[in-house]
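[Automated response] Your request has been received and processed.

Submitted sequence:
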Amino acid sequence: MTQMTAQSRPIDLSRSAVIVIDMQEHFRDIAQSLLPTLIPIIDSFEEHNLLVIFTQHGHIKETDNSQLLKWWGAEDSISRFSPAWRLMSELEPHTPRNKPTTFRIENKNRYDAFLNTDLEKILQDHKVNSVVITGTMTNLCCETTARSAFNRDFYVYFPTDGNATCSRQMHDASILNLRYGFAQTTTLDEIHKALNRLT
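Generated structure:
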């Protein structure tokens, strides 16, 4: 198979949402470097009255029997409502709870942000047809959510510099897979330019 022509398709964000995945204190060492370029994107989505959706991954370990928790072990997993579960402090001013286009999904406990959450309903209720996937970790929650969005018929934009993980090798492998069959890979600068073209 040849490279998908979607990679040269003009970016259309007129009915889009940015999904900011798991930018939590637990992942600060991995993802803090994204903040200077990611925050202006969040602000631009808000200025254009487009959806901004933050997810927070965590487990209630006393009742969670998930395979994910067993895989990583309770000690290495994030406890819901713990300090490590909180969004990075730099993002708090950008997550107003009274803004109708900003949402926080706080019950995510799988790699897939759609699974057992209201994410799909929020997107459908606001007639979103494309999503911009950002956050951490590229090869786990970000890639899984991008694939899940694609399989739910949302068009997926995946900024290569808007996602982070613990090694360049894993990051690049995810980008290669997503570009082949699930997402249009791009950059945060190109997303910003596309937002500026909106009237």
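Summary generated for your ticket: Strands lie at 16-21, 51-57, 102-108, 130-136, 155-159, 163-164, 184-186. The helical segments are 28-31, 35-47, 67-72, 119-125, 138-151, 168-181, 188-196.
If you did not submit this request, please reply to this message.
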